[in-house]
Specification:
By secondary structure, this protein is an alpha+beta fold. It contains three helices and six strands; from the N terminus they run βββαααβββ. The strands form two sheets. A three-stranded antiparallel beta sheet has the order 1-2-3, with no helix packed on it. It starts with a strand and ends with a strand.
Length: 125
């Protein structure tokens, strides 16, 4: 089964394909109830950087999901530094999308353009 899911209000919506026992591949649509997390507020005077705020807004409680990247090797291959905030996002959230809209590219170095720009995220919209 290959499926892509996103949060929509109090529902999870997923689309993709599923293979039947006979081997036929069929389209799949899944809709399931979702407990909408309440964003955690930042207390007055609390000093949080934007990544800590993003974690709180998303209600993220999981462990870091992507710690396997050798950033020094990646930067050496690219010939340039990768922004530390991107590294923190990739390491913290791993593969996925924010609100089904913004897909975080886990390997932007594979999409290095001729003008030197890296595609670090994208959207189907």
């Amino acid at each position: 089964m290959t499926i892509r899911a996103w949060a929509y209000g109090d529902h999870w919506v997923g689309t993709g394909t599923a293979r039947e026992a006979e081997g036929a591949e069929r389209p799949a649509l899944v809709v399931a109830h979702r407990e909408e997390p309440t964003p955690l507020a930042v207390a007055l005077g609390e000093d949080l950087d934007w990544m800590q705020r993003l974690v709180r807004i998303n209600g993220w409680t999981g462990a870091a999901r992507r710690q396997d990247v050798d950033w020094a090797e990646v930067e050496s291959r690219l010939g340039t530094a990768v922004p530390s905030d991107y590294k923190r996002m990739a390491e913290t959230f791993g593969e996925g999308a924010f609100d089904g809209f913004l897909d975080l590219n886990q390997e932007p170095w594979t999409g290095l353009r001729e003008d030197g720009l890296l595609s670090w995220a994208g959207t189907g919209s």
